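Re: [help] complex structure
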Amino acid sequence: MDAATDNVITARNLTKRFGTFTAVDAISFEVRRGEIFGFLGANGAGKTTAMRMLCGLSLPTSGEGRVAGFDITDEAEKVKRNIGYMSQKFSLYEDLKVWENIRLFAGIYRVPDREIPIVGGAMLKRIGLADVRDNFVRDLPLGWKQRLAFSVAILHRPKVVFLDEPTGGVDPMARRDFWELIYEAAGSGITVFVTTHYMDEAEYCDRVSIMVDGRIAALDTPFELKKRYCTQSMDEVFRTLVRGEGKKGGARL
Amino acid sequence: MTGLGVEIKGVVKKYGTLKAVDDVSLRVSPGELFGIIGPDGAGKSTLFRMIATLLLPDSGKITIGDRDVVGDYRDVRSVLGYMPGKFSLYQDLTVRENLDFYASVFGTTVGENYHFISDIYRMLKPFEKRLARHLSGGMKQKLALCCSLIHRPQVLLLDEPTTGVDPVSRYEFWEILKRLSADGMTIIVSTPYMDEAYKCSRMAMMIGGKVIKEGTPDDIIAGYNGKLWKVSGREVYGMLLAVKAYCGVVSCDSFGDSLHVVVRDDIEGLRSYLREKGYDDVTVEATKPTVEDCFIELVRDGCSDR
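Output below.
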């Protein structure tokens, strides 16, 4: 973390090119400690590519970034160790039991062996899944899986957790349960960087950025964004930006 | 085109001791755009797979027009398009190869039925040579839809077709569905997005393997029990916790930048409670329930074991 600014994520002209295609085009922003930052955009706008760079999984073509106090180009391994990550597509091993997943991920993130039963047990109790610790993850309802995956991703108390469409396909009740966990984590000082296609969830973020064709087309609080685009909902803000700016790029990918 | 009706009568499917689908009966008329919603594990996908002839019911009967999904499964498959929830395309084939493959499986060619999918395929055409795995979510869904339509089915089954799809692509996808339905195709679709459920002509809500509510979206909304209040203010999460702790609250759920609240008695009690708690910039107004409110109410009443 940059002590002087309290920023957990800083991106400066972060760019990624694949051949002649610029997937992420010189994006710059900061995310403060404990903030819930919504990272929105159309399919193919470059969100996942940007997120992979911030997680130390892909090197920027140009520009720079710092995450959790480390440089994403020169200290990618340290970045990986100091963040949490969860996505809708992959988070837990389906053919391992609940408890085995906890032990595996806690070990990967270097939670000391003797602490794993304590923090793991407390976590399961808190999210109400203590009774299923010996069940296979594949047998859990999706909403439970997602709650467990999130809690596993922050078990090592990272400074920031990256959530890539954590609630995709999750029903309205389970999504609300999930967001309570996000609020709790943010309240305890963990910075949350989250992508979503649910515009009601965009409202739950402290600030929201909207990516269009590799660039950040807008970044502000939901309140200010709605005011700026004279609309009642984030859904309309999103459509205005994506429809309006998407044209020159042709069909979105 | 004339669509075919789908009739589901007393269908049961058990996995071991678990009744995944528990005595479900539904009648979907030709040309209807019929939505199925429900929490995860409600039995929606199991029901879809039985309609799609991929899973045998333990008891009950499903007919597509006059074809039985068990006895006449070959006939059924020729009139049915099915887009499963998980990505159904071959990732290492190109856009065009996927489409050609699906056409050949159904004994037709892309050329023969191209006019039928041309509206959708036009958007994919510039990327014909791209591998399916390199498509974005919205494009994948459009390709999967093309693949499920290439044999000109009269009934289309879509299991959560827009999960992971951005709001603009979702809107486009539903415009396509409305057009297909207006042309006479019968469509049964499941979705976790309640705004999509509202676009259906009728819908069924499933919980624990059973259909617990069925009707037009407006019928479902009219069946909402409580008097609903919308509470808005600056600090929604703080208010959510405060209202949930209020003794007179029946339910309180976040809805974007506001809360939807049902109280036991007079709303004035909540107003003054919030003022006491220091929320003085709060507006409280009566509001109409949405399909999402109904969903939450039914899930809460219907399965307290969640």
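The mean pLDDT of chain B is 93.
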